[in-house]
């Protein structure tokens, strides 16, 4: 960083920042200012190239140009200026900042800069005699690598262009996509076992379980082969940041290796959360362990009301096992509650028991075995009622914790939501540290779905290395809860739509329906349910799509594409249905909630 300029035959200690302050006094086409001692100036060479120089007063034609080798930020206390400062700090780049809102000549400086660069706003960034621009352009220059070159980082070499921490679906998708653009990529993947194990044991439960494990094994092998084909280096090691752009990888034998990269993607995913009650880690399992059990689980208590909890309970009940779900408050938090309650009601009439408004307070071992016997004591969420019962297996599915606590994020300044361990990101999945990105279940406030992580990973790699501008859509995401009666949805839950648009601006159309295959055995009439939520202020655009019925996932996938294209109620009405199908109800739906009309169905 140059702090000294030659002026005449003497050394004049003026920093580039002082030279920029002098811009407020510039005059004339050459941009120079006369005083008894010096002439200051900013010479516009071409494009966005500038040279800062200083004249010795009497020798008007005698100039010593100096390259502006430090970063100079003309800023204010506004948020965008703070973002740019954080960027330079995270890069370890020295810079000088002139706060124009605290400077007497601030307005004059801005006016002069507008004449020279066409930009009057702050922040206004200069790096090594080059005008970079404002906040957006500076962040873009960082993303495409041009800022690093201006900062003189050409001499810095990294082991990899990109290191992905986490070998889940999102991390693998991002790594392979980046490698397809010719980038040198590494994936670090390591699973910390749950207290019950999550180890790859020899299996002897039954044919079904063995088939599931074989399928999972084939998937894992396929992932390794695809990484090899894409020339992505795979390391079965635990990744931890130790300093900016540097990570430590520790394998299962404890051997440590160190790697550097220009950019990082954190895709570490989540692990099941425990209850922190006596006996939970010693005697309970999670959904991660269910298909690794070397025995049939027998009578099972599922603790939790997430989609994982309900899917596991429905699966066990479908095998003819005694399955009970203990629910603290509501089913499927975050999903449409009308649909969630209908899905739960169907499960309750088809063999799954529910204990509502209770939470476990202890789990005791009564008898060893495969399975053994466990006593669960639970307390009411309201009041002092205590209940007890015995089970062979207790499966905890009360949510998952982000795997972000022990990977060194604090050492490099990545901000984490302390409440849930998740990482806040921009709409481009960028963390508070510009060279670190995050995708998947660890994102704060985003959907925790495998296809979302895959899409986000691919789009991130394309933005980083292909110049794409396409961002992941986290709203219009089709998904399905695979309960015994499937629940598919896309867009907003009714409660969320009301919160965003206002109830008076929405029209909800709904209907019960009877699948053809259920009519002959006269099975469960007026159980399946469908509804759409339309924004009346936007041509009745469909902002929420919900269906409870057989093959709801297959139905939702197709409608998800239509919603991405701006589906409206009018377009649905104009669509000819396929008879007899479940999906056709969306083309004939004409009863709104506000009308109070009858939605029961008398036939297929």
From TrEMBL:
Keywords: Disulfide bond, FAD, Flavoprotein, NADP, Oxidoreductase, Redox-active center, Selenocysteine
Entry's Gene Ontology molecular function annotations: flavin adenine dinucleotide binding; thioredoxin-disulfide reductase (NADPH) activity
Chain coiled-coil ranges: none
Matching Pfam families: Glutaredoxin, Pyr_redox_2, Pyr_redox_dim
Record-annotated FAD/NAD(P)-binding domain positions: 160-457
EC number, UniProt record: 1.8.1.9
Listed PROSITE patterns: GLUTAREDOXIN_2 (PS51354)
Family: Belongs to the class-I pyridine nucleotide-disulfide oxidoreductase family.
Protein name (Swiss-Prot/TrEMBL): thioredoxin-disulfide reductase (NADPH)
Organism: Xenopus tropicalis (Western clawed frog)
Gene name as annotated: txnrd3
């Amino acid at each position: 960083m140059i702090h000294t300029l030659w002026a005449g035959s003497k050394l004049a200690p003026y920093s580039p920042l002082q030279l920029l302050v002098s811009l407020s006094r510039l005059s004339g086409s050459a941009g120079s200012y006369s005083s008894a001692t010096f002439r200051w100036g900013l010479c516009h060479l071409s494009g966005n190239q500038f040279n800062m120089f200083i004249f010795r007063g009497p020798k008007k034609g005698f100039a010593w140009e100096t390259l502006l080798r430090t970063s100079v930020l003309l800023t204010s206390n506004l948020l965008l200026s703070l973002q740019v400062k954080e960027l330079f700090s995270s890069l370890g780049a020295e810079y000088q900042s002139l706060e124009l809102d605290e400077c007497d000549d601030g307005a004059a400086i801005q006016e002069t800069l507008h004449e020279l660069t066409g930009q009057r706003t702050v922040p206004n960034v200069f790096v090594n005699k080059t005008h970079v621009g404002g906040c957006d352009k500076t962040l873009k220059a960082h993303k495409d690598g041009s800022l690093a070159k201006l900062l003189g980082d050409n001499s810095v070499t990294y082991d990899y262009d990109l290191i992905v921490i986490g070998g889940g679906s999102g991390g693998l998708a991002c790594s392979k996509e980046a490698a397809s653009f010719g980038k040198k990529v590494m994936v670090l993947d390591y699973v910390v076992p749950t207290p019950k194990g999550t180890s790859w044991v020899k299996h002897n439960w039954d044919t079904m379980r063995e088939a599931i494990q074989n399928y999972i094994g084939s998937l894992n092998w396929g992932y390794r082969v695809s990484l090899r084909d894409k020339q992505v280096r795979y390391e079965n090691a635990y990744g931890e940041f130790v300093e900016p752009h540097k990570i430590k990888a520790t394998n299962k034998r404890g051997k440590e290796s160190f790697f550097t990269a220009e950019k990082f993607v954190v895709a570490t995913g989540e692990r099941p959360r425990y209850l922190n009650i006596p006996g939970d880690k010693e005697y309970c399992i999670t959904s991660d362990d269910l298909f690794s059990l070397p025995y049939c689980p027998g009578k099972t208590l599922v603790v939790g009301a997430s989609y994982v909890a309900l899917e596991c309970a429905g699966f066990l009940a479908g095998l003819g096992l005694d399955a009970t779900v203990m629910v603290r408050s509501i089913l499927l938090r975050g999903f449409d509650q009308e649909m969630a309650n209908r899905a739960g009601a169907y499960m309750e009439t088809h063999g799954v028991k529910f204990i509502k408004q209770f939470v476990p307070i202890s789990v005791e071992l009564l008898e060893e075995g495969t399975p053994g016997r466990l006593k669960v004591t639970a307390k009411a969420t309201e009041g002092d009622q205590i209940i007890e019962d015995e089970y062979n297996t207790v499966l905890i599915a009360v949510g998952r914790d982000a795997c972000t606590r022990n990977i060194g994020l604090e050492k490099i300044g990545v901000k984490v939501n302390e409440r849930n361990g998740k990482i806040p990101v921009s709409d481009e999945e960028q963390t508070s540290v510009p060279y670190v990105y995050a995708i998947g279940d660890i994102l704060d406030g985003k959907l925790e779905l495998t296809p979302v992580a895959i899409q986000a990973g691919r789009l991130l790699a394309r933005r980083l290395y292909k110049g794409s501008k396409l961002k992941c859509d986290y709203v219009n995401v089709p998904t399905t809860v695979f309960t015994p009666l499937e629940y598919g949805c896309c867009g907003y839950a009714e409660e969320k739509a009301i919160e965003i648009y206002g109830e008076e601006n929405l029209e909800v159309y709904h209907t019960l329906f009877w699948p053809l295959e259920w009519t002959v055995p006269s099975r469960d009439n007026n159980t399946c349910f469908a509804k759409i939520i339309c924004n009346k202020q936007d041509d009745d655009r469909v902002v929420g799509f919900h269906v409870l019925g057989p093959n709801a996932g297959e139905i939702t996938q197709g409608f998800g594409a239509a919603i991405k294209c701006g589906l409206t109620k009018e377009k649905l009405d104009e669509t000819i249905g396929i008879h007899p199908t479940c999906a056709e109800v969306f083309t004939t739906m004409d009863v709104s909630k506000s009308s109070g009309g009858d939605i029961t169905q008398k036939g297929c």
